[in-house]
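go over both lines:
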Amino acid sequence: MIYLDYQATTPLAPEVAKAMQPWIEEKFANPHSPSRWGNEAEAAIEVARKQVEKAIGLTGGSLAFTGSATEALNWALKGTVEKAAAKGKGARNRIVTVATEHAAVLDTCEWLASQGVDLTILPVQPDGRLDLDLLARELDKNVLLVAVMQVNNEIGVTQPISEIAKMTHEAGALMLCDAVQALGRMDICAGPDFVAVSAHKIYGPKGIGALWMRKGAEPAPFIHGGGQERGLRSGTLSTALCVGFGAAAKLAEERQHRDYDHVQKLWGAALRALGKDWIINGSTAHRYHGNLNIRREGVDGARLIADLRDIAFSLGSACASGSGRPSHVLRALGLNYRQARSSLRLGFGRYTKQKELVDACRRIAAAAHEQETLDA
């Protein structure tokens, strides 16, 4: 199999598997136990916490481990609303977000709207970028939180997070950044009050994410029970998963520039192999080049996936691809139903071999041409 679905998940780095192994087998103690073995596990988690914080690269805050980035985003949104509501009458009660955000943000915001929160979902320009003038007009005194992701998971387009955070703070509001697709690939932009990240998108294990919180902005607890994680999140932490996340973050930080250069070469090779009949969805100037979202008029993306079963690629987000609906991100760019259905997402990274990528792209182009010939 040629794996080209790096936005859905990344392979587990061998170094990460090795770091996790002892904590899966003999070092199984509960990290919240006062025993010597528990203390050892707790110390390993604190090392991992510092490794993830260092990879995020922001100062003035702290990090709490969560079960996923989805949980982290839910916590930041719901916990911030709950904390503001506790202030009583006159509290800010408006969330502003963007139409191309991940479902973990959009669905949570819609739920909050059903509970009485004032929600504004801003459109994007045809290149997938947010119009900052439009955002500025929406930043009134009732805005509590602005949620914008740094790198889009479906099309790879980046947003000017530091600028957005500055505008948000000038309006007296807080900012949440989904940095799942940014961590390890580029520097996390300075400015947000909350940053959500995930281990399995940086060659770490599934089942663990984290929320970085600026000091003083911590949301109300989302999961209650024992307050094991900084008194804000309850539940026994998995030492193995935390250690795996830490090892992946350390490796990603060390390899960031090398991985970036590798991806740049792969991007160029993929475009040459695909040929001239494809259109890139989203900005080509502002994007992460390990995400190649393309379309070709008249092609059925689902048929291509069925015809090329030994190549792993997708139509869009793994969280939404099973629904049968066209990508909400592509529709937000202004693509019609047929254009969205003719789009593919090719994701590549650290372990992608250029020859394999080129072979896969040539086969995808040939299969698309065959579809066009049969349907003519």
Summary: The chain has eleven helices and twelve strands. The mean pLDDT is 95. The radius of gyration is 21 Å. Residues 48 and 246 are 4 Å apart (CA to CA).
